[in-house]
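Exercise: predict the fold of this chain.
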Amino acid sequence: MVEQDAERLDAVFHALSDRTRRAMLRALAQGERSVSDLAAPHAMTLAGASKHVAVLERAGLVRRELKGRSRVCRLTPGPLGEANSWLDYYERFWNARLDALDALFAAEHSKGGPR
């Protein structure tokens, strides 16, 4: 289970590492889009866009369906929530460290220590 979670998290961060895929996710957050619609702002071929969508699909971020003659993509936000939870842990960790450092500086300042 832990290994499977780690592999999914790896896939999500890999998918998010590309600016084109992040832009596609942003567009999908507004609603369903065809692969052609996702390709258009990036001046890429349908095959190139389809490869990006496949990476998003493998990460579980996107679901692709055939509607008529078009492939329509829909955002599936669950894996983003999992990645956000992982990042939240480290945000809390660093905030606690920075708060401790701030308290240390405040204590030094109140003692008249170096500025």
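Check your answer against the key: The chain has five helices and three strands.
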